[in-house]
Structures are given as structure tokens and as C-alpha cells.
Automatic annotation (TrEMBL):
The organism of origin for this protein: Chryseobacterium zhengzhouense
Name of this chain's protein: Bifunctional 4-hydroxy-2-oxoglutarate aldolase/2-dehydro-3-deoxy-phosphogluconate aldolase
InterPro entries tied to this protein: Aldlse_KDPG_KHG, Aldolase_TIM
Origin: domain of life: Bacteria
Family: Belongs to the KHG/KDPG aldolase family.
Pfam families listed in its UniProt record: Aldolase
Keywords (A to Z) from UniProt: Carbohydrate metabolism, Lyase
Pathway recorded for this protein: Carbohydrate acid metabolism
PANTHER family: 2-DEHYDRO-3-DEOXY-6-PHOSPHOGALACTONATE ALDOLASE-RELATED (PTHR30246:SF1), 2-KETO-3-DEOXY-6-PHOSPHOGLUCONATE ALDOLASE (PTHR30246)
Lineage: Bacteria, Pseudomonadati, Bacteroidota, Flavobacteriia, Flavobacteriales
Quaternary data: Homotrimer.
Length: 219
């Protein structure tokens, strides 16, 4: 099995891709451990701050030592330099807010999953032509589940995951899965700034378990 397929399967099997960023290295690691304890085996860390690369490097180190089956992805990749930096430190998969041709050309031949954000059929066609197999529908709250329903038959060979606007409720999650997505990306609705500030890792773990249970019940 290819590495791209292995990562795709892991995300689809859990049905959710949690994503977060925190400037503090210790908080970053503690959240990762909380998600792992909840049953998560693939996580997206967001490259949005000055400490993102060093924090992610530490995440890889801790993962290798304590949770070898965890897949670590990096998000908000907007250019080739970022992709090269995170590839060097061991990122398992890469996610962008939009399609970046140079990033696709760098990662896909290396058998590394690249999931770009798309919000039009034209963008999806462009990504598919470049070898992308896993599309991030972004921003999900602007597109809505109806968009997924309308396009799914046009792209039978692609997997889709909305990010942005997906709530932790059964109603929100179910609407997307019924529309045809393979997983949902979930950031601040799951790992909120308030929970991170309070270092309330128990709630993060429990809320994640609840979402996993909702998704498994829907499958």
C-alpha cells in the first residue's frame, strides 16, 4: 500500500481530522497527547506562527518516542519553501488553504499526501489533474453540505473533507457525511482557544471521544 493510501485510510477510518495551533511548545504537545488518548491517529498542526516549525519538530520527536502510530500532518502550507521545511522534519501529510501547483509537484512524486483547499469545480479539476486524490473543501461554512451533494457524482475518484464551520453536533456532522464527504476537518469547534488557554486537556479528550462516537455511529 502506498503512503498516500495509508494516510488517506487513517483519516477516513477516524472520520475526523482535528487541527490546531498553539505558540507554546508544551501546550502543543499536551494537546497532541490528549487527542491521542481520545483515539485520534492523524492530526493536522497549523503552520501559522513563528514557533510552528520548531513545535512541529518537537511533535515528531515525541510521536516517534511515545505514539508511533500517530500520523502528523501540517496545514496552511502556501508555498514550496514551507513544504520543503516540513518535509525535512518528517511531516506525514500536507494541507493547504488553496491549491499550490509547486507543492503538489514536490510531494506527490514522493508518495506524500497533499490535500489542497478547493471551493470551485475548476479548482478541484486542476488539483485532480495534478495527481491530488484528497480534496479539502474550504471554507466549509461558505460552501455548505449542498455543494458537496451537487459535485460528488462529477468527481467519483476523489475523497472530500470539509474544513471550517463543521460543528461537533450530530446534526452538523451527519449533514456532511450524508452529502458524501469521507471525513470532516475540525479546528476551533473542537480544540478551542478557551480550552487551550485553560489547559483543559480533559475536556478536549472527552469532546474528541464524543465526536468519534458520533462518526462511528453514522458509518
Amino acid at each position: 500500500m502506498t503512503k498516500i493510501q495509508t494516510v488517506t485510510n487513517a483519516i477516513i477510518n477516524q472520520g475526523i481530522l482535528p487541527l490546531y495551533y498553539n505558540a507554546d511548545e508544551t501546550v502543543t504537545i499536551d494537546i497532541l497527547k490528549s487527542l491521542y488518548k481520545a483515539g485520534i491517529r492523524a492530526v493536522e498542526y497549523t503552520s501559522r506562527g513563528e514557533s510552528a516549525l520548531s513545535n512541529f519538530t518537537k511533535m515528531v520527536e515525541i510521536r516517534n518516542a511515545e505514539m508511533p502510530e500517530m500520523l502528523l500532518g501540517i496545514g496552511t502550507i502556501k508555498n514550496l519553501q514551507q513544504a520543503e521545511e516540513y518535509y525535512k522534519v518528517g511531516a506525514d501529510f500536507f494541507i493547504s488553504p488553496g491549491f499550490v501547483a509547486e507543492v503538489a509537484a514536490f510531494l506527490i512524486p514522493k508518495d506524500v499526501l497533499y490535500s489542497p483547499g478547493c471551493m470551485t469545480p475548476t479548482e478541484i479539476i486542476t488539483a485532480e489533474a495534478a495527481g491530488v486524490t484528497f480534496i479539502k473543501l474550504f471554507p466549509g461554512n461558505a460552501l455548505g453540505a449542498g455543494f458537496m451533494s451537487a459535485i460528488k457524482d462529477v468527481f467519483p475518484n476523489l475523497k472530500f473533507m470539509p474544513t471550517g464551520g463543521v460543528d461537533t453536533t450530530k446534526e452538523s456532522i451527519e449533514s456532511w457525511f450524508k452529502a458524501g464527504v469521507s471525513a470532516v476537518g475540525m479546528g476551533s469547534k473542537l480544540v478551542s482557544k478557551d480550552l487551550m488557554a485553560a489547559k483543559d486537556y480533559a475536556t478536549i479528550e472527552n469532546e474528541t471521544k464524543k465526536v468519534l462516537e458520533i462518526i462511528q455511529a453514522l458509518k
